Amino acid sequence: MINPNLYLEITAPVSLDHNLGKHFRELARFPSSRALFGSELYRKLKPEIERLLASITHEDFSPAPPVRSPERRESIKATAWNIERGKCLPQIIRALREENDLAASDVLLLTELDYGMARTNNQFVVREIASALRMNYVFAPCYLALNKGSGLESEVAGENLQALHGNALLSPHPLLNAHAVALPNGKDKMSGKEKRLGSQRAVIADVLHPAGKFRAVSLHLDAHSTQSHRRRQMKIVLDHLEALRPALPVLVGGDWNTSTYNSRRAVYSIGGFFRRVMMGVSHVIKNHYVYPERWFERGLFGDLERRGYDFRKLNELGAGTLHYDVKDLAANVNMGDWVPQWCFWFINWALKENGGRCSLKLDWFAGKGIESDPAHPPRVVADCSAAREKISDHDPIMLRFFIDGEEGASDRQ
Question: What domains can you pick out in the chain, each with its CATH number?
């Protein structure tokens, strides 16, 4: 349904409102995308569905930018965060406004944001964040949700309104030439309990920072996919960036779902877990889950380096960003939507010597034409939620960087 090579340049705010909600229940009855696309109902609704899923919208809540000396070489502060729909929105806003490592970010690369979903009180999550932080935002919907979500989300009160879910870029500085690139799905989004139309989309914009213009990409790769599929999605983004003119320094960040697993189907994940148990649970936890670039996801990271993108100096290597605990009810209910219940006994047994916990490194930065600020090393902001309640299933990652050499100098203003 989505052309993977499609990108839409933003010209004016686009309305994401629609009247499709009355058809959601009937659309959700189809067991596969193929069955749905062949139906008379879908053919009738297709123009409006495709309009929404090819849209990108923006607003500007930022005040006039402060006057800064263009001669002073200053580091640029970036935060990437999968905010888990925005279910803990007040706490997320507070963290982005007040946490020392997150406050005053020059660019936010956010993934998993709802608009009009019952699980997030039908709020327009990115608009609430941008308004509170006085930032510009660009938002691209990825999915039109036909039901309330997965796991415990399916039990929330109320009904979806706009029923959209997507990715975003935010900045107090102007965002120019904003557009989105659609990525192919790793599995049929209509074949499971959670029914959705659409696909992941990378959100791209040029950030007009006083230190120089650079290109930012908020990127969420598919969770239920193979390692090779995630690599293919990244290649599509890199190919697109390579073709853009003028060439600019680039920062790519977000949740890349580098779990080390082939998660396209539950049976593949189960088989993969057995393999990792045979390798030694503690060995895998320490040497692979938090270092996916070493082996299981080496193709994706190798492609980045061959294209001239650095990731090793732009991330806190070996620091997990998603932490699984066998006692986490929400995570287990969500997993229970697609893996058999007997698997949980095996997982509990395998993780017993590790306190029932393990961490994965799913969230990353990569960049070209930029260099990390040595005075402020990149880090996973692991204490963002530890001191209080858990506000997302992912930890945010933070990077301070300089635009390298003269590539961005001609665009300084």
Answer: 21-64+72-258+363-411 (3.60.10.10), 261-296+322-360 (no CATH)
